[in-house]
Amino acid sequence: MNDLKDKLNSTISKEIHLGFNLSNSMEAMSGQASAAEILVVGPNVTKVKEYVQELSTRLKNIKEVTTVSDSMEAGKEEYQFIVDKEKAMKNGLTTHQVAMFVNQSIQGQVATKLSTSGVEKDVRLKIQGINNSKKAIENLEMTSPLGTKVALKELGTVVEAQSPATIARDNQQDAVTVYANFENADMGTISSKIQTELDTMVQDLKINENMYSVKLVGGTEMMEDAFSSLTLALILSVVFVYMIMASQFGSLIHPLIILVTLPLAMIGVTGGLILTGKSFSITAFMGIIILVGIVVNNAIVFIDYVNKLIKQNLPVRAALIQAGTTRLRPILMTALTTILGLMPLAVGLGEGTEIQAPMAIAVIGGLLSSTVLTLVVIPVVYSLIESLKGIRKKLKIVMQTLKEVEKEIVTVTAK
């Protein structure tokens, strides 16, 4: 597309406007392209249009933004009859009566319906010989309630103007949506840059934020809602995993040691997405939630075997070394089966795989880093915890001994 853009722009006349947009079947099905949406809302449509034009100019300065468009459509040329209320009242007429007369004169009035072969058609009564010219409208005569005939030119003026093709409203105020198409960037990055431009524009133009609103909507809004929901799901998954492990181990400390594997997995998730050039999307976030239930498996296998060896009166250091050598193969087997199973999804070349690939890459990267680091970090953390337990036991013994010595001193003093 970029190659064609360079060639066509250099050969085709500047009078012809060319638009370029990259899309695929998945975007067509979801209805979401690489475009950020900004909604400008306010009570004064003229001001709203001014802000839209200023915003469009500023958005074009962002490197990743390719084209900027908005929902404003060119109005249609028309004649508008402006009623002079004072003149109308002198003739016993209201603005509504004048408007109805003009409408019926030009458009006609449906008197009845005619049915032909089961199909109903309107029978419309119109003034004979009337046309849409300015002169014809001005010379139209209507009968006033006072019984006199009055020409429209005596009740107001006919002016040429443009009528809006569409009128969009948000919360009963005029609204215009600005679309910024972008490339070579993810939604999160481009949204951050656009938000910076919005904040700068609000400050530069001193926009009254109580009356006018300029905000990101559409895909950005949906992404923020999805991320907040997934964050809650992530927190709940960690809590549930901890509760299950605490009940199985019969300890509150050992599950915490196992949960240390989660930050270790984040190293692989970040590295995997950076190396493959994928953005941190909703599917990648889902991969992290999946990891919460997977990466702890290796640590569970390791810690469970260490506890069994310690119950057999084996020293902590010896138990950790033996568990590492004995459980190495099962840990590698469980990790590799998951990694190899997700590999086709991570390297898929068909359309649609770009949506699912970040999830597979996040899981694979997290498993790789957690598997390698679990064999090093978890034994160290376990050893430190046991050392702290040993120090605590020694302090208890010391304190108890001091109390016994204090009692003996008091007894000797009393004698």
Describe the model.
With 415 residues, this protein is α+β, with helices and mostly antiparallel strands. The chain folds into 3 domains: 2-71 and 168-217, Ribosomal protein S10 (Alpha-Beta Plaits, 2-Layer Sandwich), CATH 3.30.70; 76-108 and 123-163, Multidrug efflux transporter AcrB TolC docking domain, DN and DC subdomains, CATH 3.30.2090.10; 222-404, Multidrug efflux transporter AcrB transmembrane fold (Up-down Bundle). The protein is built from 15 helices and 11 strands. The strands form 4 sheets. Strands 1, 2, 9, 10 and 11 form a 5-stranded antiparallel beta sheet that branches. Helix 11 crosses helix 15 (353-414), helix 12 (296-311) runs antiparallel to helix 14 and helix 12 runs parallel beside helix 15. The model is unreliable at 24-32 (pLDDT under 50).
Brief sketch in words of this structure:
The chain has 415 residues and is an alpha+beta fold.
Overview features:
Multidrug efflux transporter AcrB TolC docking domain, DN and DC subdomains, 3 domains, 415 residues, 5-stranded antiparallel sheet, Alpha-Beta Plaits, alpha+beta, Multidrug efflux transporter AcrB transmembrane fold
